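Annex B. Sample input.
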Amino acid sequence: MVNYSPGAIALHNRQSMKLLSSLLHKHQQRRSLILACCNDVRWHGAIIRKLRAHCALPLQAVKLPASTRSLYGELHSQGMTYPANGALMILGLDAIAALNRVLLAFELEYQTYPDTPPVPLVLWVTDRVMSKISQFAPLLEEQASDPVRFWAIASAEPPAAIAPSSPPLESCCAGEM
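Annex B, continued. Sample output.
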């Protein structure tokens, strides 16, 4: 977690929000891999809620269970359909028990099926997951954009305990895009 002032964190997160929104619009209706990084996973959902409020594209979020063995397999088993003109957000990688194996399989699947998914795929990661991607899926790291980094406010309540428009979230991602 970064130890900057709330104002500096809010400014950084506004810039990150604009960058992520821009990447999603730029890669609309095209397969692309985007890494969104925030080391406090409790903020991932809150940031996505804020992004939905400022991004006109349909954003579909999927939280992977800890028992996931294959990313594409899990999406298929959930009957996943890709949002037209939108993006697919993948959460929960940090909690997967067999993360190394999942990343190896995902890299192979991503290379094998070049048209799937036909939308931007946003992986919500932590620095630990980024390190695992570098180690076990280097081709994915090469194909992905530079990570879009978000910072959490250490003193704020966990987002699960607050409403989407309450002050801690606003201070995390304050301002208009």
